[in-house]
Amino acid sequence: MQNGKRKILVEINVYNEGVKIKQTLSQFPPDSPYQVLVVDDGSTDDTPQYISEFQFPVIRHSINLGIGKTIKDAIEYGQKNGYDIIVAMAGNGKMQAEDIPDLVRPIEEEGYDYVQGSRYLKKGRKDNLPLFRDVMIKLFTWIVSLITGFKGTDVTCGFRAYKLSILEHPRINIWQDWLNKYELEYYIHYKVLTLGYKVKEVPVSMIYPPVKKGYSKIKPFTGWWSMIKPWILLTLKIRK
């Protein structure tokens, strides 16, 4: 902790987002109270050029390894450098840095361990969210509430904050190889909801582009299976 405050790392994951990453990084002024870490998951477009315009530390993969591996690298960086809280944020321009204080405040001031962003809560925004994705998010979230008993509203929102210390729990092992893609986020989510950690949702904005094409890199079948798989494998105790 610095001056009585917890050290906060904002991990920005990016893959082939081009100018969108510049728009995201521009939201953080030089005097930002957060340390920003950019993890470039093997971009092959002009994304690295835009990142280089800023002075933030960068971890760069030579090839695309997956969002799970990206977050693992950020977690390892945070652990090695004494950070207390990590905030996961996409570099695709949909998430707003102005929401970060609302994500970390429950941890710093209210004793929460894990804070999930929700575009569905009052004051949250989901501008231009495609109808099919809207329906699938609500269905998935309802299923998760049946499994865990936690009445959440937006389990798929990747904008979240949590204490790095929760990853020291003996029943949490994020370093397993099967957690290198979307599985990791939902593995952690399952664990905090079933191991008794204090969890809260707060409203955030997820602003989608007005044109639906290219609004997401989640593939229709393999991507969604990657998100669903941890809930099945962990509930059935096939994985730990």
In the CATH hierarchy, the third-tier topology is known as: Spore Coat Polysaccharide Biosynthesis Protein SpsA, Chain A
* Class derived from helix and strand content: alpha/beta
At the first level of CATH, the class is: Alpha Beta
* Major sheet: 7 strands, mixed
| Total DSSP helices | 7
Poorly predicted regions are none
What is the terminal separation in angstroms? 31 Å
The assigned CATH architecture is Alpha-Beta Complex
Number of domains: 1
Helix content: 25-40%
- What coarse outline follows from CA principal-axis ratios? globular
Would you kindly provide a brief summary of this structure?
This protein has 7 helices and 7 strands. It has 240 residues and is of the alpha/beta class.
Provide structural commentary.
The chain is of the alpha/beta class and 240 residues long. The protein has one domain: Spore Coat Polysaccharide Biosynthesis Protein SpsA, Chain A, CATH 3.90.550.10. Helices cover 34% and strands 15% of the residues. It has seven helices and seven strands, in the order E-H-E-H-E-H-E-H-E-H-E-H-E-H. It has a seven-stranded mixed sheet, sandwiched between helices. Helix 6 runs parallel beside helix 7. The protein is globular. 35% of the residues are buried. The model has no long low-confidence stretch (mean pLDDT 94).
